[in-house]
Design a protein that fits this description.
Elements: E1 2-6, H1 11-22, E2 27-32, E3 38-39, H2 44-48, E4 59-61, H3 63-70, E5 73-76, E6 78-84, E7 89-94, E8 99-104, E9 107-110, E10 114-116, E11 128-129, H4 134-147, E12 151-155, H5 159-170, E13 174-178, H6 190-202, E14 206-208, E15 213-219, E16 222-227, E17 232-235, E18 237-240, E19 244-246, H7 249-254, E20 264-265, E21 277-279, E22 284-287, E23 294-295, H8 300-314, E24 328-332, E25 335-341, H9 344-350, E26 354-362, E27 373-381, E28 387-394, H10 398-411, H11 435-447, E29 453-454, H12 459-462, E30 468-472, H13 476-481, E31 488-489, E32 507-511, H14 516-526, E33 532-535, H15 538-552
Parallel strand pairs: 1-2, 1-9, 2-5, 9-21, 11-18, 12-13, 12-18, 13-14, 20-22, 29-33, 30-31, 30-32, 32-33
Antiparallel strand pairs: 3-4, 6-7, 7-8, 10-19, 15-16, 16-17, 22-23, 24-25, 25-28, 26-27, 27-28
Helix pairs in contact: 1-8, 6-15
């Protein structure tokens, strides 16, 4: 059996190695048009920033190493220009020598990846870059070392964009991010993104949200960007990171069926619409594990799994790809942001009848040194309590918790059943009630009617009603430092003695710093005949979102913890 693989990196290289492990006699050939057969795509921004010092560390495998270990013929700087599906051949061009030849195949795997999207305003110049390959990385780092830019603009606030902004900032480059939407990192919701915004601004990164770049031009050795709001920015360099699109040129020419965003359609065995041709990685359309809708999710984890599954089926095993969940994690300065499943915005657009809980917990036992806060947002169906997704923003232990919830989704656990997970505990690592358990406890309380919730978006309308009481149960000092509009202060520890100050004919909406004290307050109130509701996320979340709104209105204050909204 002769297997030709077009494209290396994650999907193609994984497929090749798996085929060899299953079939020692197969002839395996990889054609990769870049100069690197398998490299750490996700590590590219960190080489630019100097975190990864040696560029050789980006290379996971070389053609020579691939052949020594697996007897796989890997050809770099070779571009496949055509597929003849009738005669089962591919046309290949050696980019260096500009010579061409025909290669036959019994089975073909397409792993062409994705290509950066270039906006309409783009004009090619030596100071504007995209980041997708090792060559792109070397080009950017070389430019920085040679020109020592003082300013940079990153257009796009997705994974690559914000990682580039972080690394440029760490190099001492004054960096600005221009983002079309109202928040960075589209995989999370706006409320959770407010923590990211605060972190970036504290590091001196300027955020221009809700802004569209309309024109780019070169003036001397500067790039001029003109925005839709009339603002003009002069900068030393630009990185365009507005997203990627599936590389479907070959598939399109060969007549393979295409789907969403032009991605290659495959079945659960990674087979395309043409017999004996498989496709994997960033170029393919798959099913979302939760929604079962068609999606394109360009992440390394799914690409590796798909490569393995294609190899299994080529070699006679019966493997199926169960769908992509979109689990991801990203380091942003000292902060970690992680997601799995769908976010609230997606749940709303799809039409789910959902509930959400937002809670802030310590990464480990509070009495053990250096505990840090993490905020968890869990989204689940109201009736079935099926987990739809989760987002976590924090510092330590975020990756561990998102992986637990991602696993819970795969095994079919309900939101309230997270309370039953038997998590490892020691003071340096967790608390006896792990943050994931705590999310489960809150979900169980909602299920049993022990707690009723209200949200940030409810506050403006509540503050205008006369039949409600807005109650802040933090300490007087906390209340004095910052409060939500219309909230009166009765500290939790004084509440039982001051119940007479509250009107039982009115609904009471309770807030504290993180949601715990306000929950305790609602239990006191409900058991004393009051109709009480707990604020999701606490004042910590409220102040973060409100601060973002103030900034968007150009209302700058001396700091998030010092303003009073009244």
């Amino acid at each position: 059996m002769k297997v030709v693989i077009i494209g290396g990196v994650a999907g193609g290289a994984t497929a090749a190695a798996r085929i060899r492990r299953l079939d020692e006699n197969a002839e395996i050939i990889i054609f990769e048009r870049s100069g690197y057969i398998s490299y750490a795509n996700c590590g590219l921004p960190y080489y630019i920033g100097g975190v990864i010092e040696d560029k050789d560390n980006l290379t996971l495998q070389t053609p020579e190493g691939f052949y020594r270990r697996f007897r796989i013929k890997a050809h770099i700087e070779h571009e496949v220009t055509n597929i003849d599906t009738i005669n089962k051949t591919v046309s290949v061009t050696n980019i260096k020598t500009e010579t061409s030849f025909i290669e036959s195949y019994d089975k073909l795997i397409l792993s062409p990846g994705a290509k950066p999207i270039l906006p309409d305003f783009y004009t090619e110049n030596e100071r504007t870059f995209t980041l997708r390959t090792v060559e792109d990385t070397l080009k950017i780092r070389g430019f920085i070392e040679q020109n020592q830019p003082k300013t940079a603009v990153v257009i796009g606030g997705g994974f690559i964009g914000i990682e580039m902004a972080e690394n440029l900032s760490e190099l001492g480059v004054q960096t600005t991010i221009i983002q079309r939407s109202n928040h960075l990192l589209p995989t999370i919701d706006c409320d959770m993104a407010s923590f990211i915004h605060a972190s970036f601004r504290s590091r001196g990164v300027q955020l221009l949200l809700n802004n569209i770049t309309e024109k780019m031009s070169m003036i001397d050795n500067k790039i001029l960007l003109e925005l839709s709001n009339g603002k003009q920015i002069f900068t030393d360099m630009v990185v365009i990171a507005i997203g990627v699109s599936p590389e479907n040129t070959l598939a399109k020419k060969a007549g393979l069926e295409l789907g969403l965003k032009g991605a290659i359609k495959v079945n659960s065995k990674m087979e395309t619409s043409v017999p004996d041709i498989y496709a994997v990685g960033d170029a393919v359309q798959v099913k979302h594990y939760i929604t079962m809708q068609d999606v394109v999710i360009p992440l390394a984890g799914p690409a590796n799994k798909q490569g393995r599954i294609a190899a299994d089926n080529i070699c006679g095993l019966n493997s199926e790809y169960k769908g992509s969940q979109g689990s991801s994690v990203i380091k942003l300065f000292d902060m970690t942001v992680a997601t799995t499943g769908i976010n609230e915005q997606q749940a709303k657009s799809i039409g789910y009848n959902y509930e959400k809980v937002i809670l802030t917990q310590n990464s480990h036992a509070g009495y053990y040194p250096n505990a840090t806060a993490m905020t968890i947002k869990l989204i689940f169906e109201k009736e079935s309590f099926k987990i739809l997704g989760a987002q976590i923003v924090g510092y330590d232990g975020v990756d561990k918790r998102i992986d637990v919830i991602a696993t819970a989704i795969r095994t079919g656990l309900r939101a309230d059943e997270l309370k039953d997970l038997d998590m490892a505990y020691a003071p340096p690592y967790s608390s006896a009630k792990d943050p994931v358990n705590m999310a489960g406890f809150v979900a169980e309380n909602i299920k049993n009617g022990i707690v009723k919730q209200f949200y940030y978006e409810d506050i403006p309308s509540l503050s205008e009603k006369e039949d409600v009481i807005l109650l802040d149960t933090r300490t007087p000092l906390e209340y004095m430092r910052g409060r939500a509009e219309g909230f009166i202060n009765i500290p939790l520890d004084d509440l039982r003695e001051r119940l007479g100050e509250l009107d039982k004919t009115k609904k009471i909406y309770v807030m504290c710093q993180s949601g715990l004290r306000s929950y305790l307050a609602t239990r006191i109130l409900m058991q004393n005949g009051f109709d009480a509701y707990n604020f999701v996320g606490g004042f910590r979340l409220y102040s973060s979102i409100k601060y973002e709104e103030l900034l968007s209105d150009r209302c700058y204050s001396c700091g998030m913890e010092k303003w009073i909204d009244n």
